[in-house]
Amino acid sequence: MRRVPRPLPRGHEPWRYRLLGAIIPDLDDVVERWSLPTPAIPILPLHLRPALLAGVAIVERPGLEMLQMLRRQMIGQNHVRFSSTIDEIITRTCRSLASSQLQLI
């Protein structure tokens, strides 16, 4: 998903700035437009897979706080889609915590 880099760099190219680049410095410079998955070719190139796994681990550890921070960096329709996904995750998390506490009683 695309994000808004802060501050806006010179020669701003909106396609270049992806959400994972907010977590892993310099990733946006490594990722080329042609190397990103598309609906026609949904396979992530091997050289990008370690960065994706590292990004997932970095987001997973702090949990909801990291997702809230990333939400603020999204733009346009990506912001709407990401926000609805985050809200759904938060709702599921709250429900699962409540049910697990009831099981302890």
List the helices and strands and how they pair.
Blueprint: H1 27-30, H2 49-60, H3 64-71, H4 76-104
How does this structure look, described?
The structure is a single chain. With 105 residues, the chain is mainly α. It has one domain. The protein is built from 4 helices and no strands. Helix 3 packs antiparallel against helix 4. The longest helix has 29 residues, at 76-104. The chain is globular. The model has no long low-confidence stretch (mean pLDDT 76).
Question: What features would you highlight for this structure?
Answer:
single chain; 105 residues; 4 helices; globular
Radius of gyration: 16 Å
Number of domains: 1
Structural class: mainly alpha
State the shape: globular
Distance between the termini: 42 Å
Give a short account of the largest sheet: none
Proportion of helical residues? 40-55%
Average of per-residue pLDDT values: 76
Query: What is the count of β-strands?
Result: 0
Write a short abstract of this structure.
The protein is an all-alpha fold and 105 residues long. Helices cover 50% and strands 0% of the residues. The protein has one domain.
